[in-house]
Amino acid sequence: MATLIDLIGNTPLVEIKRLNPNPNVKIYGKLEGNNPGGSVKDRAALNMIRSALERGDIKAGSKLIEATSGNTGIALAMIACLYGLEIELALPASSTKERVLAIEAFGAKVSLHDGMEKSRDYAEEKAEKEGYFILNQFANHDNYMAHYKSTGPEIWRDTDQQITHFVSAMGTTGTIMGCSKYLKEVNPAIQIVGCQPTEGSSIPGIRRWPEAYLPKIFDPSMVDRVMDIAEEDAVNMTRRMAREEGVFAGMSSGGALSAAVKLAGELKEGVIVFICCDRGDRYLSTDLFG
């Protein structure tokens, strides 16, 4: 009989056919919304909490705090309750209602702040002054190692070792760093493509960080190419992905698919895998699908 934790990972790959402009290229989306917490962040949340417990950094009854744009918060709230940990999640005030309610459903506390940077400042200050343990996904080795240990090997296995290009949104950069580390080890020729918003675009889950807030786990040498994604393109591709491919996901997934489609148009042949970060029901209170 499986436990909830056993259900994290081993998410399916689904082929994108109608939106693929090149018959000589395969595009696959890795459906991370199939994780029990509904996003790719289940993997990092589990590895960060479990590793901290194993090292003795925290124990049952410890108080945790973390800044998050939403999906990591839901995942951490879910994992924390399983291990008997108290946790507060600091979110931008712009976070969707669904995210806040989902976090609170797991018994976690939510505080709202003016943007992601202010959320990070608040969490770090509370950890320093009030004794909370901060996981700090932006600088935590266990974040990207979750993907080195699971996501990367799954993609390699499920493409029959045929993957040529990996495409991922860049937020904390844990997913792209961990997958890059693994995929480059098994085949250095695999191209790693990161997505960031164009200047002025707002795409939940994809960030263009100010220099002072750039995640410490990010190593630019592990990304072969960075593609700028316009907000309009991410929105349009998210809607088309649902209506033409039946894949119901969030805007960062649409942004990653937009990059994958553009990339496919440039190639003679290849196998592209992009990360479909979460489920579309996280965004129903917004106008994303309006």
From TrEMBL:
PTM-bearing positions, type N6-(pyridoxal phosphate)lysine: K41
Gene Ontology BP terms: cysteine biosynthetic process from serine
EC main group: transferase
Record's catalysed reaction(s): O-acetyl-L-serine + hydrogen sulfide = L-cysteine + acetate
Family matches, as CDD domains: CBS_like (cd01561)
Keyword Protease (UniProt): no
Listed PROSITE patterns: CYS_SYNTHASE
Pathway assigned in UniProt: Amino-acid biosynthesis; L-cysteine biosynthesis; L-cysteine from L-serine: step 2/2
Domain Tryptophan synthase beta chain-like PALP: 6-278
Documented EC number(s): 2.5.1.47
GO molecular function: cysteine synthase activity
Pfam families: PALP
Top-level taxon of the source organism: Bacteria
Claim: Amino-acid biosynthesis is one of the keywords in the record: yes
UniProt cofactor(s): pyridoxal 5'-phosphate
Keywords: Amino-acid biosynthesis, Cysteine biosynthesis, Pyridoxal phosphate, Transferase
Residues the record lists as binding pyridoxal 5'-phosphate: N71, G171, T172, T173, G174, T175, S252
Family classification: Belongs to the cysteine synthase/cystathionine beta-synthase family.
Protein name: Cysteine synthase
The species this protein was found in: Mucilaginibacter corticis
Gene name of this polypeptide: cysM
